[in-house]
Amino acid sequence: MALNYLIKPSLDTKFFIDYDWWESSRDDLQIYLLTHLSQEQQTALSKRDLEVVYDYVHPETGEVFALDALGMAIQESSRSEDFISDHIGLIDSVFRAFLVNGNQPLNAQVLAEATGRNAATILKTIGGVHIYRGIRPHFTSQHSEA
User: Fold this and answer.
1) Angle, CA 103 vertex, CA 127 and CA 66 arms, to 5°
2) Residue 19 placed within a domain
3) Residue 124 sits in the same domain as residue 111
4) Cβ atoms 19, 135 nearer than 8 A
5) Is 97 exposed, middle or buried (0-12, 13-18, 19+ CB in 10 A)?
6) Angular region, 123: left φ>0, alpha ψ -120 to 50, beta rest
């Protein structure tokens, strides 16, 4: 059994959004995701069937994903220049960086570049014992096997 919680993250440790964490959390992922949208987008979503799934083509890679209306709205928002800004909290900025990159694992230095925040501060915040918004270290099998 892996004891990942005993490994102290460093600036090179990669993190990701663990969506399984949301399953056991008291917080609701869909409601949290809605907070990342503008008021206009939230209003537009309230008039749509959120269960309908669409094919989304990633503009840079051409990869096709199945996304619901909320996912499509998040992708639209993430292309805005002010999606990640100084006007939102650190955790929200980091979470949005993962939304922008498709939740690919990123280290604190890359997150610092994406958010304009200090890498050491990011690491201190998301690399501690408390898990914020499902953001946790992404340990590969080489790190997690004893």
Assistant:
1) 155
2) yes
3) yes
4) no
5) buried
6) alpha
Q: What is the pLDDT of residues 91-131, one digit of tens each?
A: 999 999 999 888 999 999 999 999 999 999 999 999 988 99
Per residue in 41-77, pLDDT tens? 888 888 887 788 888 887 777 888 888 889 888 888 8
Judge whether 42 lies within some domain.
Answer: no
| pLDDT confidence of residue 109 | 97
Instruction: Please give the structure tokens belonging to residue 132.
Output: 């914020």
Residue from 14, 42, 36 nearest 135 by CA = 14
17 close to 134: Cβ distance less than 8 angstroms = yes
Match 């993190």 to its residue by tokens: 15
Task: Clarify whether residues 31 and 99 are in a common domain.
Answer: yes
Residue 11, C-beta contacts closer than 8 angstroms, at least 6 positions apart:
107, 108, 109, 119, 120, 123
Bridge partners of 55, per DSSP, are 66
For the entire predicted model, the pTM comes to: 0.83
